[in-house]
Design goal:
Deoxyribonuclease I, Chain A, 6-stranded mixed β-sheet, globular
């Protein structure tokens, strides 16, 4: 099974064929339009869900057979949802697009902490995936924020959920060698902001992690796609 997350920077209808070259079974896409995601839902062999208020710029999930979306709903965090996917292995997917919000404490990684508040009240399933554009990194820990990136990683770890990228490449948070974001599309202003966190059972089946290179993706978006392959 292959999963990919990508902030497409809008106009997905002009870029989706490029994304399909990954052959992913499940795609989580930020900044996509409701119209295009619903169009895919009417295509044979595909199932999709879209979350958001701006019809031109929301959070989409696309899956292909034999996987199918059986339930999708928005959660209290503005840009976080819950999607139940049926298939060879039932999955509990939490797509993320961490954005500015009010109050400020609930912006960006604050959105993830709100999701964690929900997960801690009810233990996540053995096949849980939290994936998307977190707009965060531990290099920005500290300051006035208590609920920072490293705190979120620690809370996830206590739930038995770990980052696929960091497990596969054996790298520490904040020391990532593969950027997923080029600020203002400048290849010298690079950050790692996109993640896939997996429950222990799924992490044990991790086969491959791939981050798109700027030579292949910069003309499409300021974010690189992140591909996760599992032996499922």
């Amino acid at each position: 099974m292959k999963l990919v997350t990508w902030n497409c920077a809008m106009a997905l209808h002009k870029k989706h064929e490029k994304l399909l070259t990954f052959g992913a079974d499940i795609m989580v896409i930020q900044e996509c339009s409701r119209k295009f995601i619903r169009q895919i839902n009417r295509t044979e062999g595909w199932s999709s869900a879209w979350l958001g208020k701006n019809p031109n710029k929301g959070l989409g999930v696309i899956v292909k057979a034999p996987w199918i979306i059986s339930e999708a709903k928005a959660l209290k965090p503005k840009w976080v949802g819950k999607v139940i996917i049926d298939g060879p292995v039932p999955l509990e997917l939490f797509p993320v697009w961490a954005c500015p919000s009010e109050p400020r404490a609930e912006s960006y990684i604050g959105q993830v902490h709100l999701l964690l508040d929900i997960l801690e009240r009810k233990s996540p399933s053995r096949s849980t995936i939290i994936i998307g554009d977190f707009n965060s990194n531990s290099i920005w820990d500290g300051g006035r924020r208590i609920n920072d990136h490293s705190a979120a990683v620690s809370r996830l770890r206590k739930l038995g959920i770990e980052s696929a990228y960091h497990a596969f490449f054996k790298q520490a948070q904040g020391a990532e060698e593969h950027p997923t974001f080029w600020f203002t599309k400048n290849t010298k202003k690079i950050f790692h902001l996109d993640y896939a966190f997996l429950s222990g059972e799924l992490l044990s089946k991790l086969k491959r992690v791939e981050v798109g290179h700027h030579k292949d993706w910069l003309s499409f978006s300021d974010h690189a796609p992140v591909l996760i392959e599992l032996d499922v």
